[in-house]
Structures are given as structure tokens and as C-alpha cells.
Write a structure and sequence with these properties.
Blueprint lengths: L4 H6 L5 H28 L5 H17 L7 E2 L5 H32 L11 H23 L11 H11 L5 H16 L9 H18 L7 H4 L1 E3 L5 E3 L24 H33 L5 H17 L6 E2 L1 H9 L5 H22 L4 H15 L2 H10 L2 H16 L2 H23 L1 E5 L17 E7 L7 H6 L10 E8 L5 H16 L3 E5 L2 H11 L7 E4 L2 H8 L2
Parallel strand pairs: 6-7, 7-8, 8-9
Antiparallel strand pairs: 1-4, 2-3, 5-6
Length: 562
């Protein structure tokens, strides 16, 4: 059974020292995940608590049920560009349904053992869409970083940029100061305080500076001033509600959020669900692979997909947002001594305690400090070095794929970027394969023939094909054979070095031999048994006296020139 694979594997020999290491790592990771979960929830258009619910529920459940020893799961920046349109169009209810469906898809994918196929996504596509997402997140963050207070961002990237530029005169300099100080410390504090993650230092100092500015009479937008919630007695609370996440069940809960979805809702949300599931699978397994490289371990990809799937279902039932493996938090876990999946579990438990005990203090975190954290996250996920390395050293085809995927992700959305990127990569790969297949001709005057030219009759031309014949190259390769030389009456087509012929290739072979036969030319096809049998059985009518199939060129020559 793959469920809980990593936990079962790691519990043997668990002791007090391991527990201390896991607790320490879980504490550090929780400090990193806390502000990021709030910032990502705000970025998609929801109050911050929904990101915290995801970090708690998925952060605890996925390590217990998944297939990676060090993976830390929760909300990630990659989801922002997918989730934000869902929230804008369908609200929290639509997002809950989408998250549940995505979780079911991930479980099915794990049970069908498709985890190993995630590695088939080309590296330029991954780099292109993550870099594109980073640009989109950075643009979204500028609103709060500069204190522009734009209420609704348009969907188009161009319109977003235009609106931000038009709103620059309304920049709030106290909020800019908080954002700049926070962002600077996130980039440079590791040189001063290497025991604390730089995002923690940046947020803490930003919150302190924001409090000083507010006390001095300046206006600084905070979580408490931006978000509110209703208490049981009807009064309004500010910031983050200090409550445990509550679970609802569709058809059983009285809340409208958990009413049974209609067929129309399912039809609309199935495509976003597939996208979220694919992105969650891709990011989780990439993160798990990075963790394996850092900690010299090995993850179980299908168990991880099942764990992520269950985690997303539970997150959706808790009104959370989609979750996946988080590379930065996973790396932090390993760097600070996490030994088993319990370190990631502890990180979720610590965040739960923060919500229950310190919610009122979290309300003082400035929005510009959280925007700085998103900018910092966007920079780290932009893969600038890898992006430039592909452009500088990679094949032209990879550079084209990278730029197209990046451009479509920024200009339209991630779905378009990934779809067009993969299609482009496939077409360019077919172009490469087409170029690999070579055609060489042998005849009685060609002393550089592949075989002894003296054994070739003067009226015979032999065409040697080396490489696969498929829909990308079959017509182009075989058309060269149909050039009719007056002195050539027999064409020998050597397919012995052809490992694969698809249906398009076979149809092209049939058309070629039929054309030659109509011109009273003999055609001898030399092919391996598998290919020869398919040609005999399905395509070529051997009753035609001008068409022959042999097992080798040598046998064909012996019959042509005994």
C-alpha cells in the first residue's frame, strides 16, 4: 500500500534526537510558511486565513500520507495565476469545488501510477511558465507594495500594467518605506542573521516599522485594517479569526459554500481542476526530486500524488486553497535538520498554534510587507539564471519553446503557456527526429556505396534509409526515391536500419510503390520481419508483379543479378 509510504519508512529507529531535529526544523519552516500562506491567500483574492487553513490541513495530512521524507506542502505561488480567476468568477465556493475535484484527480493519478510520467514535461516549458508566473505575481504585488489601493485588477496583463502606471501618482510613501525595508532585509539579512530565514526577518522588521509609522500618525494598511470577520455575537473582528479551521461536507452542511454542486458548475470547473491537479503533481514531484538530491533520499512518486490528492480534498473541505509541495519550504526543512515527515507535520501544528494564540498580533503585519514577501518569492521562482542559460547555451529549439511558453503565460495565462509550450516542444522535437533520418543511394557507378558497387546491376538503384519513418518525415524522405531515372528500372528500398514505421509512414511507402508500379518500375522492399509482415498483411498488394519484399538487400541482389 502506497498511502503513508514515507512515514512508515522513516519511523524505524525514531528516537529523541530525531524528534528534537524534527521539532526544530518544523518551527523554522512554520515561521517561513506563516506569512507566505497569508500573502498567497490575499494574492488570489481571499482573506489571509484561508491560506493558513491550507498550510495547517495540507501541511499536516500530506506528510502523513505521502511519499517524500522531507516534503513540506501548502499553498504556493505557482497557483496564484490559476486560482485568482476562479475566485473572481466563482468565489470561494467555486474554489472549494475545484480543489476537491483536483484532489480526486490526483488520487486517481497516483493509483494509476502515472507519477513517473511527470518527468516527460520539457525543462524549457517548466522554466518558461514558472518565470512567467513570477512576472505576473510581481506585477500583482506592486499594488500593495506601493500602497496604490487599486480595488480591482483587470484580467489582462497589459491592462494591469497600464492601470498600475496610471495609479503611480497615488503612491503612499510610508507603505513604500515598509515594503522597501522588508524586501531589502529578505535579500540581505542572511549575511547578518544566518540562523533565521530572511523572510522572517523581513516581515518582523517590516511589522515593527509599520507600527512605528502608525504610532507617528502615518497611514499604513495592515491585515487588521484590510480584513474583517463576524463573531458569533454579531460583532466584527479585525484581521484573522483566532479559530480552528472548520470542515464542511457537500450536501450535509448548512453553509451555501457546501451545497451540492450543480452540473453546470462541474462542467465549468472541470478544466481548472485538471490544470490545478497537473500543476500540483508537477510541482510536488519536482520538489520531492530536489529534496532527494539535497538529502540523498528517494521518494515514491505515486504515494506522493495520493498524499497530495487527499491533502487537497481535506483542504477544500476546510475552505482552504489548493496545496502542493513547496520547494523553498522543503529546502528550509532539510537545511535546518528535518529528518522525517513529522518535521513537516510539526510545521502545520505550529501554524495552528499561531492562529489560535497570536491572531491579533498577526493583524498588525503591513500589507506592503506581505507584498514584499511576494516580490521576493517571485524573484526566487523566476529562475533567471536557468532562463538565461537556456537562451545562451541551449539548442535553438529549446530557446524558442522557452520564450513562447513564457510569453503566453504572461500575456494570457498559465494554461495557454503550458499548452502552447508543450505543443511547440513536440513539433520542434519531431523536426529534430526528422533531420536524424538519412537517405543514401547506392548504384553501380558509386564507389562510395554502402555495399560493393560492382555487385549492383546497372539498371538498379538502392536507397538506404537510416532512422524512423513517421508522420513528420515519411513523405519528404520517400519523395526522393520517386525521382525516375530513365536507366533505372528497379528500385530497392532498404529499410533494414529503420527501427520504427508509423501508419503515416506505411501509407507513404504504399503510395510510393504504387506510383513506381504505374510507371512500370519494379520495387523491392527489404525490411525486418515485423515491418515486412505489416506491409504484406495490411498495405501492399503482392499480386502486383512489380512489387517484391525481401529479408535483406543481399538476397534481393542475388535474385536481381544471379
Amino acid at each position: 500500500m502506497t498511502i503513508g509510504w514515507a512515514l512508515k519508512k522513516s519511523l524505524a529507529g525514531y528516537n529523541r534526537t530525531t524528534l528534537q531535529s524534527d521539532l526544530t526544523a518544523g518551527l523554522i519552516v512554520s515561521l517561513v510558511a506563516l506569512p507566505l500562506a497569508m500573502a498567497l491567500s490575499i494574492a488570489v483574492g481571499l482573506p489571509p486565513q484561508y491560506g493558513l487553513y491550507t498550510a495547517i490541513v495540507a501541511g499536516i495530512s500530506v506528510p502523513l500520507l505521502g511519499g517524500s521524507l522531507h516534503q513540506v506542502s501548502g499553498p504556493t505561488a505557482a497557483f496564484v495565476v490559476v486560482i485568482a480567476p476562479i475566485v473572481a468568477a466563482h468565489g470561494l465556493r467555486g474554489l472549494i469545488i475545484t480543489t476537491l475535484i483536483a484532489g480526486i484527480i490526483l488520487i486517481i493519478a497516483g493509483l494509476l501510477t502515472v507519477g513517473r510520467y511527470i518527468s516527460y514535461v520539457p525543462y524549457p516549458v517548466i522554466t518558461g511558465f514558472t518565470s512567467g508566473i513570477a512576472v505576473v505575481i510581481a506585477v500583482l504585488s506592486i499594488n500593495d507594495f506601493l500602497g496604490l489601493h487599486i480595488a480591482h485588477m483587470p484580467e489582462s496583463f497589459y491592462e494591469k500594467v497600464t492601470l498600475i502606471l496610471q495609479s503611480l501618482p497615488s503612491t503612499q510613501w510610508p507603505e513604500v518605506a515598509v515594503g522597501v525595508v522588508s524586501l531589502s532585509l529578505m535579500f540581505w539579512s542572511n549575511h547578518l542573521i544566518n540562523k533565521l530565514p530572511s523572510p522572517v526577518v523581513g516581515i518582523a522588521v517590516g511589522a515593527f516599522l509599520g507600527a512605528v509609522l502608525i504610532h507617528s500618525g502615518f497611514e499604513v494598511d495592515t491585515i487588521g485594517t484590510r480584513f474583517h470577520y463576524l463573531l458569533a455575537d454579531g460583532t466584527t473582528g479585525h484581521g484573522i479569526p483566532p479559530f480552528l479551521p472548520s470542515f464542511g461536507f457537500h450536501g450535509l452542511s448548512q453553509s451555501d459554500l457546501f451545497a451540492l454542486p450543480t452540473f453546470t458548475e462541474l462542467k465549468i470547473l472541470i478544466v481548472p481542476s485538471l490544470v490545478i491537479a497537473a500543476l500540483a503533481a508537477l510541482e510536488s514531484l519536482l520538489s520531492a526530486a530536489v529534496a532527494d538530491g539535497m538529502a540523498d533520499t528517494k521518494h515514491n512518486p505515486n504515494a506522493e500524488l495520493i498524499g497530495i490528492g487527499i491533502g487537497n480534498i481535506l483542504s477544500g473541505l476546510a475552505s482552504g486553497i489548493p496545496a502542493t509541495g513547496a520547494i523553498a519550504r522543503t529546502a528550509t526543512n532539510i537545511q535546518h535538520g528535518g529528518k522525517t515527515p513529522l518535521a513537516a507535520v510539526f510545521h502545520g501544528i505550529f501554524i495552528l498554534f499561531y492562529v489560535l494564540l497570536f491572531a491579533q498580533y498577526l493583524s498588525y503585519v503591513p500589507m506592503s510587507a506581505l507584498a514584499a514577501l511576494l516580490l521576493f518569492t517571485a524573484y526566487r521562482m523566476s529562475h533567471i539564471t536557468q532562463f538565461m542559460r537556456i537562451l545562451k547555451f541551449g539548442p535553438l529549439e529549446d530557446s524558442i519553446t522557452l520564450i513562447i511558453c513564457f510569453g503566453f503565460t504572461v500575456a494570457i495565462d498559465m494554461i495557454a503557456g503550458v499548452t502552447v509550450g508543450i505543443i511547440t516542444a513536440c513539433f520542434l522535437l519531431m523536426k529534430r527526429f526528422s533531420a536524424i533520418t538519412q537517405l543514401q543511394m547506392s548504384h553501380h557507378k558509386n564507389k562510395e556505396s554502402k555495399i560493393d558497387h560492382r555487385s549492383i546491376p546497372s539498371n538498379v538503384a538502392i536507397y538506404h534509409i537510416n532512422g524512423s519513418l513517421f508522420f513528420g518525415n515519411a513523405e519528404e524522405i520517400l519523395e526522393q526515391i520517386e525521382i525516375l531515372a530513365p536507366q533505372t528500372t528497379t528500385f530497392v528500398v532498404d529499410l533494414m536500419d529503420v527501427p520504427f514505421v508509423d501508419m503515416t509512414g506505411m501509407i507513404a511507402i504504399k503510395r510510393m510503390v504504387m506510383d513506381l508500379s504505374r510507371n512500370n518500375k519494379n520495387t523491392v522492399i527489404c525490411a525486418k520481419k515485423v515491418i515486412a509482415d505489416k506491409l504484406k498483411r495490411k498495405l501492399i498488394d503482392l499480386s502486383d508483379k512489380n512489387i517484391f519484399i525481401e529479408n535483406s538487400v543481399e538476397i534481393a541482389l542475388e535474385k536481381l543479378h544471379p
